[in-house]
Specification:
This protein is an all-alpha fold and 72 residues long. It has four helices and no strands. The termini are far apart.
Length: 72
């Protein structure tokens, strides 16, 4: 059975974005934070994929927030 890594990443993005403590934790140690939040057993490669997807979304959102602040 195949694991839907994109769905896992999207769920983690929602969870992390709602909690400033998790954002800080993810920023300091993304792998540890993802491992703590994932309920499924994933391989190292799968975890790396999820971390990369989550990081790209969170980084993009932070950049967008900064740009909005500059344009005000």
């Amino acid at each position: 059975m195949s694991v839907d890594l994109k769905s896992i990443a999207n769920e983690l993005i929602k969870i992390i974005q709602k909690d400033p403590t998790l954002i800080t934790s993810f920023t300091k140690d993304p792998m540890k934070t993802v491992k703590k939040l994932v309920t499924e057993k994933l391989s190292s490669d799968q975890l790396e994929t999820v971390v990369t997807q989550v990081a790209s979304k969170i980084t993009a959102d932070k950049a967008g927030d900064l740009l909005k602040g500059l344009l005000k």
